[in-house]
Write a structure and sequence with these properties.
CATH architecture: Orthogonal Bundle
Strand content: under 5%
Distance between the termini: 18 Å
CATH class: Mainly Alpha
Number of helices: 16
Radius of gyration: 20 Å
CATH topology: Farnesyl Diphosphate Synthase
Order of helices and strands: HHHHEEHHHHHHHHHHHH
Number of domains: 1
Largest sheet: 2 strands, antiparallel
Shape: globular
Length: 337
């Protein structure tokens, strides 16, 4: 269903992104190949690659918000390209910082070309994301373009703030639920909020309307991350594509874990063990279940999900895109546990 919704948009999005990335000189050996690889356009040898490396939910959200706010989604393509390039910059750097060897079932950029080259490739995508925004200059008012730049700049700072907190929490003995929500507001939700706000701003050039879309995107992003936290412990491996309770095994400080740790000294004792076996994982999940943590986490997801829908209703989306936006939201939250 998601592919059917996205198909009309992605061919033109891909063409727009390729035009932006073409600024990277082809005569610089290996430089463009790293970027094409990260974006899913080629393999490590520069040969065409035909398997998608991501759902591109963020640019799709932006384009739908532009249309739902009364504009034409084609006008927002430069902004959609910008957010997807920015997102991929963050993935390259995150993989280095997290020492992750794979992404989308392929070796990560740093694993193939080394950390130094990967950092540089990420920096290039970061720069290209701003280059992409130049494409809005002929289609929106200067004041609107300036506001888009301001949102984009603030979002890049939020991404780094959230990533800093995420790394800090790995070594911080205790993390409160409020601290965690602040972290995911930057690391996970800020870019989704920016997509909704920028898309609607390009479509309507109305900052008051765009503010409602921004609130919709922020709460949607928080709810979506909480849903991922639930799937990381109780998800069906056949649906999520990873083994059950992966977040427990890696001792990730997700929302269910943080809530459980704050209410169970026994769980805290399990988490302090030097080694963590499958039996420890089973014990930890049993303790979470005994505390009713899954119900608590689902309630938090529902709270932010409803806030997102209320903000979207206040934005008064129009036309066919309004229904498509709801279809996208239902797709995001329709994944089985």
């Amino acid at each position: 269903m998601f592919a059917q919704l996205a198909r009309p948009f992605f061919a033109e999005l891909d063409a727009t992104m390729r035009q932006v990335v073409s600024r990277i000189p082809e005569d610089v050996p290996g430089f463009a190949v790293m970027l094409h690889y990260a974006l899913g356009w080629s393999d490590e040898n520069g040969l065409p690659y035909h398997q998608a490396t991501g759902k591109r939910i963020r640019p799709l959200l932006l384009l739908l918000c532009a249309q739902a706010a009364g504009g034409r989604w084609h006008t927002a393509l430069p902004a959609a390209a910008a957010v997807e390039l920015l997102h991929n910059f963050s993935l390259i750097h995150d993989d280095i910082q997290d020492n992750s060897p794979t992404r989308h079932k392929r070796p990560t950029v740093w694993k193939i070309w080394g950390e130094a080259n990967a950092i540089n490739a990420g920096d290039a995508l970061f720069s290209l994301s701003f280059c992409a925004l130049e494409g809005l200059a002929d289609s929106v008012a200067p004041s609107t373009l300036l506001r888009v730049w301001q949102i984009f700049n603030a979002t890049t700072l939020e991404l780094t703030r959230g990533q800093h907190l995420d790394m800090r929490f790995e070594h911080q003995p205790t993390v409160s639920v409020d601290e965690y929500l602040s972290m995911i507001s930057g690391k996970s939700a800020a870019l989704i909020a920016a997509c909704a706000e920028i898309g609607s701003l390009v479509g309507s050039e109305d900052m008051a309307v765009a503010a409602h879309y921004a609130e919709f995107g922020l709460n949607l992003g928080i709810a979506f991350q909480i849903r991922d936290d639930i799937l990381g412990i109780w998800g069906d491996p056949n649906v999520t594509g990873k083994s059950a309770a992966t977040d427990i095994l890696s001792r990730k400080k997700s929302l269910p874990v943080l809530y459980g740790l704050s209410h169970s000294p026994e769980l805290a004792s399990v988490y302090q063990r030097d080694t963590f076996t499958p039996a420890d994982v089973t014990e930890a999940v049993a303790l979470l279940d005994r505390l009713g943590v899954r119900d608590y986490t689902q309630q938090q997801e529902t709270f932010f999900y409803r806030r997102a829908l209320a903000a979207l209703e206040n934005a008064q989306p129009r036309g066919e895109a309004a229904g498509q936006l709801m279809q996208l939201v239902e797709n995001l939250f329709g994944r089985a546990y």
